[in-house]
Structure formats: C-alpha cells, structure tokens
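Colleagues,

Please find the record for the two-part complex below.
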Amino acid sequence: MATISFTSHLQRYLDCPSLNVSAGTLREALSQAFAGNARLAGYILDDQQRLRKNVAIFIDGQQIQDRRHLSDRLKPQSEIYILQALSGG
Amino acid sequence: MQLRVGTRKGLFIFDRVAADQWQPQAPALLGDPVTMLLTDPRSGDQFAALNLGHFGVKLYRADAGSDNWVEICTPAFPKTDAEDGPAVEQIWELSPGGVDQPDTLWAGTIPGGLFKSTDRGDSWQLIESLWARPEREFWFGGGYDAPGIHSICVHPHNSRHLTLAVSCGGVWESLDDGTNWQLIGQGLRAAFLPPDQAYNPTSQDPHRMVRCAAAPDHLWIQHHNGIFRSTDGGHNWSEITEAGPSVFGFAVAVHPKDPDCAWFVPAVKDECRVPVDAKLVVTRTRDGGQSFTTLDSGLPEAPAYDLTYRHALAVDAGGKLLAFGSTTGGLWISEDQGDHWLCLSSHLPPINVVQFHS
C-alpha cells in the first residue's frame, strides 16, 4: 500500500491523518483520500482540479511532474507527502 | 452594537458598552486572512470569507446567536477542459438578497465571477449570463492580477434589480435577478486610458460603489481617479473634482437615509497610496458633493501612512456611527458622523473590512 502524509498545517482546518491507499497514479490515490474526507479536496486542488499553486507533492522524494492532471505513477509502497510552500508575514 | 473587523490575521470584534466605549472581544478565526464579512440583516447569520493562500479560498458561517464558525461551501467556477480554466482567488464581496428572498446570498470574486446561493451559502452557482458577456474579455485587473467584483447593490425595493461594480470592468445592471445584464455607467472617466477611451464604460475602475438605502437611485463611487455620483440608479454619473485633500482613495460610505451625505478616506494618488502630506483624514460631504469637510479630530498627527481599503469604511444603519481601518492596523470609530474620532487600536493586523452589527 502507498502512504499519503499531509502537512501539519492542514490539521488546523480539518482532520487528515496519514492513510494507506492502493492506487496506480497520484490522482487515484487522492481520490481515495477525498472519498472519506470531502472537504480535503478543496484544500489541495483548485476549482479546475489542478494542484493549488502553493501546494507541493512529493512521491518517493521527487516532486511530481504533472500538476494539472496528477498522472504521476506510484509504486506499490510509494510514500506521498503533501506539503505547502512557506510564506512570510 | 458591535463592530466587526476582518483582518489579514483574523476577525476582531468590539462591543459598544457605553457612549464612546468599545470593548474588544476575543478574536475569531485568529491567524486566518479574512477578506470579507457579512452579517445578514434578515437572519443574523454571520459569514466570513477567508483566503488561506496555500489552501485557497474558504467560506465560514456562524448561525445567528452563535459564535461557532463552521466551514460551508465555497463559490467555485465550473470545471472546464481549458488548461487555464478559472479558479476563485478571493471572495471580494458578500451581499444579502432582498427581504423577499430570505436565503439568497450574492458573492463577488476575483476573477470577476458573480455567484448566487439560495440556501444560506450551502451551495453556490456561477451567474453564467454575466460571465459569458463578451465585454468581460476587456476587463482587467486593478490591484490584483485578475479583475474582480467588489460591490453588489441589491435594490431595496426590488430584489431582482442588481447593480455591480467591477475593478476594472465598469458598472453593470440586471433587472431580472441576474438573467440579463447591461453595462451602464455613462459619465465615468478613466484617466488611465488613452483620451479617446476615457469614457468607455467597459474599462472603468470603480474602487467601491455604495447605494443609499432610503434613496436607492442615488449611488456613489470612489473611482480610481475621482469621485462620482449618480442620481438615476447608476446609469449616468457626475464627476466631483474637488473633495478636500484628494479625490483618490478606495472607500466610500453613504448615509443610509440622506443620499447627499457621504464619506471618503483620501490618499495622494494611485502611484503613491499614502495620505496627502502624511496626514490621515476623512472627508465628508452633506450637499451631494458640492462641498467637503475635512475631518481629523482624534486622528493621528502627521506623519501617518495609513491607507484604507475599499471595504474598510462603514456607516451604521442609523447613520451616526462610522468606523474605518487601515492597512497598517489602525482602527477608528466616530459616534458623530466623523466630527470626532476615537482610536480603538493602532496594532491590529492589516484591515480588509469593517462592518457594524446591531
């Protein structure tokens, strides 16, 4: 099973513990995460289902390539980290 | 009476406990950027729009009599196949529908979408008829990269009559609840355009538009390069060229019962957004713009570099109380129509919006 872990900043707004998914692509993995947490999608994806500009996703240590369609492939044991860019002020 | 202040870092609330005494309450939504507020006068429900930056725009509601803020549905553009399909970047205006439409809300966004809810914000629909207007291609950003709808005036005698202001996209009117739209705003002048385009109504930058509740044909605009007044529902506008220190600013408030009385918070000009001579003042007209009084009693001595955003000046429903806040966290209140001011705080986060609630 692949694992999705979320930035702790998201915990401020909604409950989103790490979870295990069985998926071939990032989009499939996220769909499973959103299925049990409908609000979560709006924090990670924009109106057009693109990755939000200041959200970053790493799969096995590499930033994803396809922010538009989220087609990056997963391995069975992939580790997915969903993070946010840092900001000031 | 309560004053609600939406800031870059939360919602701050002040209760009026006696004449000229306003007591701060515990802040709500602390740390979150609040871009717009609405207390629905029909129900007492409160709404707060947030722009969380990384995680997008959110909308919260606290039901009447409750301080429990709950995230509700956020306006969103329909999904398209285009690579550059729109996404809501900010909720810039929230307005209640008419008294005969008790669950209706309107929201204006950046980019320039108008959204309607008929269930207290539990769901939203884009008003496609305005979004599809060909003139929208000529709208452009004013202060933000994309154009936005920041003023929604529902006619108090006819809920189906809407008047909008867009930065930068002029003034728009619908007489049928948003089904059809016409571009109005003759007489608005854009000094930032080539001379032969200056009166093109499509390209105007009304920073803020307000309607007099008791005389709804009377509207005021604080425009990018001047102050304008309409007495025919926004169809035709007269420019006011002298208004105290400056005609530049963002905010305007109109007396709810006297359409000749309005207030402004002037700044130097668009490329120098600070008070004239570093002296923070409010200007007031009581004769429809023929003359202005500069009000500074209780406001800071120069130098002061406070700037007031378009939603950060408010008058209460009785027309006596005024409040304004600044981008440097100053908050002032007046209980005599601006003759005297009381500083409630000099240390708030940058203020986006102030509103009274009784």
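The CA atoms of residues 2 and 77 of chain A lie 5 Å apart.

Comments are welcome before we finalize the supplementary table.
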